[in-house]
Each structure stands twice: as structure tokens, then as C-alpha cells.
Amino acid sequence: MLIATWNVNSVRTRLPQLKEWLEEVQPDLLCIQETKVADPFFPREELVENGYQVYFYGQKSYNGVALISRHPLRDVRYGMKAELPKDSKANDFEDQKRIISALVNGIRVVNIYVPNGSSLKSEKYTYKLEWLECLDRYLKAQKTRDEPLCILGDFNIALESRDIHNPERLTGGIMASSKEREALKKVLGERLQDVFRIFESESQHWSWWDYRSGGWERNRGWRIDHIYLCEELLQNAKSCEIHKKMRGNIQPSDHAPVVVDINWPPIEMDEFEEIDLFSQY
User: How far is the C-alpha of 247 from the C-alpha of 254, rounded, in Å?
Assistant: First the structure.
């Protein structure tokens, strides 16, 4: 089962590239961020006609998340208030459309677009830290349903030095500050692990290259698009890859897709008929 995340940085602008990538890779579920379109104008029909189910939670010009699936999605939930209806902060955050979740093949997939934070002295940085605190409460509430969990998306945080092209200069700044990292670690707790790091321990693997200052041309990137899995899913993960080539397109998103391949649903031995392994000899 292929589950992917991609910050497309405007779904309407990137629609031809999105459709081409879907046709080539055939993911079972693609979670996109920064759709930047109000729901009535989401290009749903162009994806549905290619056999996908599509659910979206968007706003004009900013933010926005969506699920594009080849499988039926159940119990689609919009925003943090879906899990925290009495949490005042969760309700306050609903003006920015940043979370959508659903069950696919029994897995609860939570698609997330974490606020950027702008700068350490900005009110947006405070907003980001408060949003992450609320995300922690949101996931704790979700845990009560005991569903296998995958959270993924654009986290706007490089969790480790090896996730930044120049950690000596950039560590401590926005997207790499200690407060952001500690907040994300609290969200993950002991339940969720970074599946990409199960398969690749080295640096120089980026998912985002800033449009400014020749980020792509100089390979000055960050790894801020993550897929986190619970232990049950992690044990069945087969690979996790960044599809870097998409960043090299004409008029690309500044992010590349990240794809995890999970052997799911796992096949139990009692699902096989007994076979006499020596009967053919």
C-alpha cells in the first residue's frame, strides 16, 4: 500500500503535474497540503474522473489540505475540533484549514500542514507552538479509538541537524529551533516514528528547496515533509522515498512528494491454504 504526502503549493497551479505523478506512481492515498483554494473551487472532477475519491478542507489563497484516494475513505474528519469539540484553542484554529483525516483500509491517516512560524520574534511563531500543543491533545484524543496511526504532511520543522543542508548556520532559527523540535517530539511521543529514517540514516536527503537564493540549483534543502507511523505499521513498512525529481519540473512546487510503501493489510499465515512443499518433486 502506497501512502504519500506532497505540499503542492497551489493545487490548481500544479494540477497537470499532480495528475501526471498520480498516473505514474499510482499511490493508494495521496495527502496534499497548501491547496490554496476555497472548497467550491477545488478541481475535484478532474481527479474523480481518473478514478479517485477526493476530500478537501480549504480556504482562499492560503493553507488547505486534501485526501486523494483510490480506496473508499471512511470517517473523514475535518480540523482539530473533530477530536476536540470542547477545546477552545482547537476551535480558534479552525480559521486556518490545516488538518484532515480519514480511515483507509483500517489505518487512520492524519494529513497535517503545520504553520511555518515566519521568524522567532513573530506572533506566528507563538501561534505555531500553540498549534503544536493543540495537535498533541488532538492525537491523544484520537488514540482512544485504538486505530493504527499514520500522520504525515508538511511539518515545517527539521527535527535533526542531518535534516538541514547547513545545520551550523541554520540550527536555532525558524523551523530548527529547540522549542519547535521539542514540541514536535512531544507530539510524537513513544508512539510514532519517522519511517524515512528507518531506511535512510544519512543527510543530504531533502524534501523542500526554497525558491529564493537558488535553493534547488545549489541543493540547499531541508527535510520538513515527514511520515510518522505507529509500531504496527512501522513493522510492515517496506520502503520510504523522496521523489526529488518533481522539484526539477518547470514551475514546480518547492516541495517534493514523500512516499511510504506498507505491506498492508498484513497477510496472516492462516490465510494461506496448507501446501505440501515437496509434492512437486
Answer: 6
